[in-house]
Amino acid sequence: MRTSLVLLSVPCLLAASILPDTIGPAHRTGQSQPALSDRAVWDDYGLKAWEAATYKSDVVKSGPSTFTVTAWQLRDPTAALAAFDWQRPETAKPSKLAPLAAATRRGLLFAQGQYLLEFAGYQPAASELAALGQSLKNVDTTALPLLPGYLPAEDLVPNSERYITGPGSLARFLPAVPPSVAGFHFDAEAQLGVFHNPKGDMTLAIFNYPSPQIAMQKVPDFEQLPGAMVKRSGPLVAVLLAPADRDLAERLLARVRWQAEVTRDERVPTQRDNPGDLLLNIFKLIGILVLFAILSGLLMGAARVLIRLAHRGEEPEVMISLHLH
Hints:
By secondary structure, the chain is an alpha+beta fold. The protein folds into 2 domains: 2-135, no CATH class; 147-254, no CATH class. The chain is built from 9 helices and 13 strands. It has helices at 2-16, 39-44, 77-87, 126-135, 167-173, 179-182, 212-223, 246-254, 275-310; strands spanning 22-23, 26-32, 49-57, 66-73, 93-94, 100-103, 107-112, 115-120, 162-164, 189-195, 202-208, 228-233, 236-241. The strands form 2 sheets. An 8-stranded antiparallel β-sheet has the order 1-2-3-4-8-7-6-5. It has a 5-stranded antiparallel β-sheet with strand order 9-10-11-13-12, with helices on both faces. It is elongated and about 130 Å long.
């Protein structure tokens, strides 16, 4: 009985593996599942699997021979973006190795699809990172949300962005706003950032709702929060809670503008719309008809010759004339 249980558990362990056996010249030497802190936030981001693997390289080079890679599999690319903002250290610097990548003191943090990966003790090369991305299973290529782009860039504290998708992340990053006010049952999401101010840093949160009408309904709820300054722009609701400088807060809210993007279905031209192609096709058709007529005539003539040979030179279908004159 114990043997059967062990055999049944082996496929589960193999299916749960996220990281490959090799990264560049390094081979995996160990695997573990690290402990999670703030599980409510991970649940908001739809954490499905996570693991840490140790790699060792026998190739002599200037870099370290042993390093660790930690991987988290989230619900979708939006959740991976949210986890990337959360796990990114304050001292991290942007990296050009991937669209969502940051160089840290320990190594590299980057997101691809619904996966978030962290290198500790090693800075991977671009080729190694590309090979690692190809080894990930069923990578989700859904586009990232546009909401982070509405956060003003001026005076924004680096690496202070946080993405909120539910009550767990809201309680962690913006506890002054109750979940009932945020209205996550409307499929709301929020992007927040900290802005530097000599009188005191301010936290700006931008909530995104499915429609401007829902955003209009939520504005009075946000305005009831103590010291809240609220602005609506389309389906966006920007909120500043008890700002230290209300004049600067007004200027900050004024920079939050929603821009509607209208897409129109356009007819895609084809080869049939080219007059030159039309004339060329006409001549091709004429040539095909002429060739068909010639071949038909040759076949008909050959058939008549064969018929005459079969009847010893006589025409079997010759017309009989009656000379009645």
